[in-house]
C-alpha cells in the first residue's frame, strides 16, 4: 500500500525484474558467463534495492568468470558488506541462507573453519526443509500429500546423487569399480 502511495507500480517493477532474471538465465544457460556477469552487474547498479537481482549478483561475485571462478576472496570486502546487509534487512529467507553460505565460504577460503562452522550451524537440518514442512500440512494419503512426498523424494535423490558423485570424484581409490569404492571414500 505504501508503495502504491509513493507512485511505484509494483507489478511493473516485478515484470522488469522478471525480464532481467530471464535474460541473465539465458546468458548463463548459453555459457556466456562473462556477459551474464556484466549484465547482472549493470542491473545490480541500476536496481540496488531488488533482492532477486542482488542474489544473482553476489553469486556472480563468488564465481567471477573473469577470475577463473575464484572471486570469493577477490571480492571479499564487497561480499562481506552485501551479505551483512542481507542478514540485517532482507526478508527473503533463501537469500539470507545464500549470505550465510557465502560468508562461510569466505571463512573456509581463509582457513577460519571455526567461524565457517558457526555460519553453517545457522542452517536448518536436512529434516527441517520447506518441502518437509509442506508435506506435514497435508493429510497423509491425500493427492496433495502424495505429490509433495514424491517431490521430497526427488529432491533427496538429487542430494544423494550429488554426494555420491562427489565421493566418486574425490576418492583416492582407483577408478575401476568406482561405485564399489564409494563407501570407502565416504
Any overview of this molecule?
The chain is mainly α. Helix content is 73%, strand content 0%. The protein contains eleven helices and no strands. Helix 4 packs parallel to helix 7 (93-109). It starts with a helix and ends with a helix.
- Large-scale geometry: globular
Tell me the structural class. mainly alpha
Order of helices and strands: HHHHHHHHHHH
Name of the level-1 CATH class of the largest domain? Mainly Alpha
Helical stretch tally: 11
What is the domain tally? 2
**What is the CATH-assigned architecture of the largest domain?**
Alpha Horseshoe
CATH topology of the largest domain: Serine Threonine Protein Phosphatase 5, Tetratricopeptide repeat
**Main beta-sheet strand count, sense and barrel state:** none
Low-confidence stretches: none
Question: DSSP strand (E) fraction?
Answer: under 5%
Q: From the alpha-carbon coordinates, what is the Rg to the nearest angstrom?
A: 20 Å
- Write down how many β-strands occur, each being a DSSP E stretch of 2 or more residues: 0
Mean pLDDT: 90
Our measurement of the CA-to-CA distance between the termini, rounded to an integer number of angstroms, reads 53 Å
Helix content: over 70%
Amino acid at each position: 500500500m505504501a508503495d502504491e502511495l509513493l507512485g511505484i507500480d509494483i507489478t511493473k517493477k516485478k515484470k522488469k525484474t522478471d525480464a532481467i532474471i530471464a535474460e541473465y538465465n539465458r546468458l548463463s544457460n548459453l555459457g556466456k558467463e562473462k556477459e551474464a556477469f556484466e549484465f547482472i552487474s549493470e542491473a545490480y547498479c541500476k536496481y540496488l534495492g531488488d533482492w532477486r537481482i542482488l542474489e544473482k549478483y553476489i553469486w556472480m561475485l563468488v564465481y567471477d568468470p573473469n577470475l577463473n571462478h575464484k572471486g570469493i576472496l577477490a571480492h571479499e570486502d564487497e561480499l562481506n558488506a552485501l551479505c551483512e546487509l542481507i542478514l540485517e534487512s532482507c526478508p527473503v529467507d533463501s537469500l539470507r541462507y545464500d549470505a550465510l553460505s557465502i560468508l562461510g565460504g569466505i571463512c573456509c577460503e581463509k582457513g577460519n573453519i571455526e567461524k565457517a562452522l558457526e555460519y553453517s550451524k545457522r542452517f536448518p537440518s536436512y529434516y527441517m526443509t520447506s518441502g518437509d514442512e509442506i508435506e506435514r500440512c497435508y493429510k497423509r494419503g491425500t493427492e496433495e500429500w502424495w505429490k509433495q512426498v514424491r517431490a521430497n523424494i526427488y529432491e533427496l535423490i538429487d542430494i544423494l546423487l550429488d554426494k555420491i558423485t562427489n565421493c566418486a570424484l574425490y576418492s583416492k581409490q582407483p577408478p575401476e569399480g568406482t561405485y564399489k569404492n564409494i563407501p570407502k571414500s565416504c
